[in-house]
Design a protein that fits this description.
The complex is a heterodimer.
Chain A (H helix, E strand, L loop, with lengths): L1 H7 L19 H4 L1 H10 L6 E5 L8 E7 L2 E7 L5 E5 L14 E3 L3 E2 L6 E2 L5 E3 L19 E7 L2 E5 L7 H5 L1 H8 L6 E11 L3 H8 L5 H4 L15 E4 L5 E5 L17 H6 L11 H4 L2 H12 L19 E6 L3 E6 L2 E9 L7 E10 L6 E2 L8 E2 L6 E2 L9 H17 L14 H14 L3 H4 L2
Parallel strand pairs in A: 11-20
Antiparallel strand pairs in A: 1-10, 2-3, 2-5, 3-4, 4-9, 6-7, 7-8, 9-10, 11-17, 12-13, 13-14, 14-15, 15-16, 16-17, 18-19
Chain B lengths: L8 E7 L8 E6 L2 E8 L2 E6 L14 E2 L2 E3 L6 E3 L5 E2 L9 E2 L1 E4 L2 E7 L4 E2 L3
Antiparallel strand pairs in B: 1-11, 2-3, 3-4, 4-9, 5-6, 6-7, 7-8, 10-11, 11-12
The chains are: A alpha+beta, B mainly beta.
Bound molecules: FE2/S2 (inorganic) cluster (2 copies) and fe (ii) ion.
C-alpha cells in the first residue's frame, strides 16, 4: 500500500550511486590498536568534525573547547565575527591551555607557566620572556591552527590545514538540503553524552543501515516506514550517504485497519480526524493529508520554518551520515545529531553524543523529548554526561546501544569472518570502502 | 542556640537591577569579596575567588546557571559551587540569596567574616 504513497508524494532525488568494490570488512578494524592508530592519523586528522553550536561562541572572545580522541581543539570567535581554531596545546611544554568547555576570555592563559595567547593563538606575553636563548617566544610562537567553518548553525573544524573546504567535502546537494532546515535559528534543547563499550564504527554502522529497525525498534512501525523497498538510500559523493524514511504513515509491516497511536495523536494536532482515515487504502494517504494541513495551517501556528521545506520534508525523516561520524537526522520539527567519537586510546570504547535542536515557535515553551521522559524546555541545554545504563539516552538510542557491547565482544572472537552484508546495508559497505581509501592513502578514490 | 554561634545579620549587597542579565558585580563586605551574579534572572552570590589559582571571577561569562573563570575557564555551577573540567575539584563558596526591597541580600555572621552557606 505505502509504495504508491512514497512515489506519488515526492522524496529526495535519487542519485547515481558510486559502484562498490566489495572490499572485505573484517573484525580487526574494530579491535586492533594498530588499526586504531592508522585510522587516527590518516582519517580522523583529515576529516571535518562538528565542534559545537555557533551561538555558544556568539561574541568576540567567546570560545569553546571540544575533544576528539586524544586531541582537544580550542575554537574562538574573532573581532570580525569569524571563527578561528587551534590545537589546545601550549607550545612551551604541551599543557592544554584552556580547561573549561566554553567561556569568554580576553587572552588565553596557560595554567602552567602563564604564557598568554591572543585570539589568533599567538603568544603575546610570557613571564621572563627574555630568558629564552633561542629568542623571546612572544609574537612568533603560537598554538597550531586548525581549519574552521560554520555551517548549519554548527562550528566545524578539520585538523588538516590542506583538506578541501567543508562545503566542497559535503557537496552542494547536502549543503542545500540540510540547509533548508535553517538550523542556525534553532536552539539545542538536549545535549547528552555517554561512553559505550564498543568501537565508534559499531555505532556508525548502525546508523548506516535500517535493516535492524524492524527487530530493534518495533515501536516505530505505527508512524515511520523503514522497509528497504519503500525507503530510499543513496550513496553520496565523498563517503556520505542519505536515508529517506517516509513518516506520518504506518509502516507496511503494520497489520491494523485503524490509525494507530502515536500517529493518531500526531494527526489530530493538525486537525485531522483519525476516524476518517480507517482502512488500508485511506491509511495510505494520511501522510499526504498531514502535508496539506501543515502547509495550510503551519505558518499561522508559528511554524515559520515550514516555508523552506519541500512537501516530503514536512512529514518525513531523512538521515544524513556525513563521513565519518556526523549523523544528522532531520525531521519537520527538529534536528538530531547522533554521533560516536573515538576514545582517546582504546579501540574497544567510544563516546556517544545526542543533541536535539528545535526551532523556536512563538508561544511554545516546551517541546517533546526524543530521549523519552518529560518534555524539555525550549532553551539552551546544559551538557549532561550520562553513565551508560543509569539513565535513558532515548528509547531507540538505548535499544541500539544495547547491541553495541555484545557486537564488540563477538567481533573479538576468533570465529568471526568478514561481514556478510545485504544490498540494503550497502551504506555500511560504502562507508568502509571510503575508510579504506583514507587509511590506504587512496585520495583519488575517496572523493568519488 | 548557644552563644558560640553569633547572630546572623542580613547584608544588603546591591540593587538587583544593577546587575545586567548574565552579568556579575563584585562587592566587598569587610574582609569578604563577593560576586553577585544574575543568571537569566536568578540571583546567586559566590566568593569572588576561583578555587583553582585564586583569580577573581568577576567578569566571567555566565550561561545556563554556570560561571566561567576568565583565567583558565573552569566553569562553576552557581547554585552548588561545583566546578566542571579537569583543573580543580574544589567548589567555590556559595551564599543563599534573598531579594529584599529589590536588594540582593545574603545572611552573614561574625561581622561579615564568616558566611552561613557553602
Ligand atoms: S606549558 Fe604552557 S606555559 Fe609552560
Ligand atoms: S584560576 Fe580560575 S580556572 Fe584557573
Ligand atoms: Fe537503530
Amino acid at each position: 500500500m505505502s509504495q504508491a504513497v512514497a512515489t506519488a508524494t515526492g522524496r529526495p532525488e535519487k542519485v547515481q550511486e558510486p559502484a562498490l568494490r566489495g572490499d572485505p570488512i573484517n573484525a580487526g578494524r574494530y579491535t586492533s590498536s594498530e588499526y586504531f592508530r592508522q585510522e587516527w592519523q590518516r582519517m580522523w586528522m583529515r576529516t571535518w568534525q562538528i565542534g559545537g553550536v555557533s551561538y555558544q561562541a556568539a561574541e568576540p572572545g567567546d570560545y569553546l573547547v571540544t575533544e576528539l580522541g586524544p586531541e582537544s581543539v580550542l575554537l574562538v570567535r574573532q573581532q570580525d565575527g569569524s571563527m578561528k581554531g587551534f590545537f589546545n596545546v601550549c607550545p612551551h611544554r604541551g599543557t592544554r591551555v584552556m580547561a573549561g568547555d566554553e567561556g569568554s576570555a580576553e587572552r588565553f592563559t596557560c595554567p602552567y607557566h602563564g604564557w598568554q595567547f591572543d585570539h589568533t593563538g599567538v603568544v603575546v606575553a610570557a613571564p621572563n620572556a627574555d630568558d629564552f636563548p633561542q629568542g623571546n617566544p612572544c609574537g612568533h610562537l603560537r598554538m597550531k591552527p586548525v581549519q574552521v567553518a560554520e555551517l548549519f548553525g554548527f562550528i566545524w573544524f578539520n585538523m588538516d590545514a590542506e583538506a578541501p573546504s567543508l562545503t566542497e567535502c559535503l557537496g552542494p546537494n547536502v549543503v542545500e538540503e540540510i540547509g533548508s532546515y535553517r538550523m542556525e535559528k534553532m536552539v539545542r534543547v538536549l545535549n547528552m553524552s555517554t561512553q559505550a563499550d564498543c568501537n565508534w564504527k559499531i555505532i556508525t554502522d548502525n546508523f548506516n543501515e535500517a535493516y535492524h529497525v524492524q527487530v530493534l525498534h518495533p515501536e516505530l512501525i505505527p508512524y515511520i516506514e523503514s522497509q528497504a523497498d519503500i525507503c530510499q538510500f543513496d550513496l553520496l559523493r565523498g563517503g556520505h550517504n542519505r536515508g529517506w524514511f517516509p513518516a506520518h504513515q504506518p509502516s507496511m509491516l503494520y497489520q491494523g485497519e485503524s490509525v494507530p497511536e502515536p500517529l493518531a495523536s500526531m494527526v489530530r494536532e493538525w486537525d485531522i480526524d483519525p476516524e476518517q482515515w480507517q482502512g488500508k487504502n485511506r491509511l495510505a494517504d494520511i501522510r499526504l493529508e498531514v502535508q496539506k494541513q501543515k502547509r495550510r495551517l503551519g505558518a499561522a501556528r508559528g511554524f515559520a520554518h515550514y516555508e523552506h521545506l519541500k512537501d516530503y520534508q514536512l512529514t518525513d525523516y531523512i538521515i544524513y551520515n556525513l563521513f565519518p561520524n556526523s549523523v544528522i537526522t532531520v525531521g519537520p520539527d527538529g534536528v538530531q545529531l547522533l554521533r560516536p567519537r573515538p576514545h582517546e586510546t582504546d579501540p574497544q570504547k567510544c563516546y556517544f553524543d545526542h543533541w536535539w535542536l528545535v526551532p523556536e515557535i512563538e508561544g511554545r515553551t516546551m517541546t517533546p523529548s526524543p530521549a523519552g521522559g518529560p518534555d524539555l524546555p525550549v532553551a539552551d541545554a546544559e551538557h549532561e554526561f550520562v553513565e551508560y545504563g543509569t539513565k535513558t539516552l532515548g528509547t531507540t538510542t538505548d535499544q541500539d546501544l544495547s547491541i553495541a557491547a555484545v557486537q564488540q565482544k563477538g567481533l573479538s572472537s576468533a570465529a568471526m569472518d568478514d561481514f556478510y552484508l545485504s544490498h540494503q546495508e550497502r551504506r555500511v559497505q560504502r562507508f568502509h570502502e571510503v575508510l579504506n581509501d583514507y587509511v590506504e592513502g587512496n585520495t583519488a578514490a575517496r572523493s568519488v | 542556640m548557644t552563644d558560640r554561634i553569633p547572630a546572623a545579620r542580613l547584608e544588603r549587597l546591591l540593587l538587583a537591577a544593577e546587575v545586567p542579565n548574565n552579568g556579575n558585580r563584585a562587592v566587598r563586605v569587610g574582609e569578604l569579596c563577593l560576586l553577585v551574579c544574575n543568571a537569566d534572572g536568578q540571583f546567586h552570590v559566590v566568593e569572588n575567588r576561583c578555587s583553582h589559582q585564586k583569580s577573581p571571577l568577576e567578569g566571567g561569562r555566565i550561561r545556563r546557571g554556570h560561571l566561567s573563570c576568565p583565567l583558565h575557564g573552569v566553569r562553576f555551577n552557581l547554585s552548588t559551587g561545583e566546578p566542571l573540567g579537569a583543573l580543580t575539584r574544589v567548589p567555590i563558596r556559595t551564599y543563599p540569596v534573598q531579594i529584599i526591597d529589590g536588594f540582593v541580600a545574603v545572611e552573614l555572621r561574625d561581622s561579615g567574616a564568616r558566611p552561613t552557606g557553602g
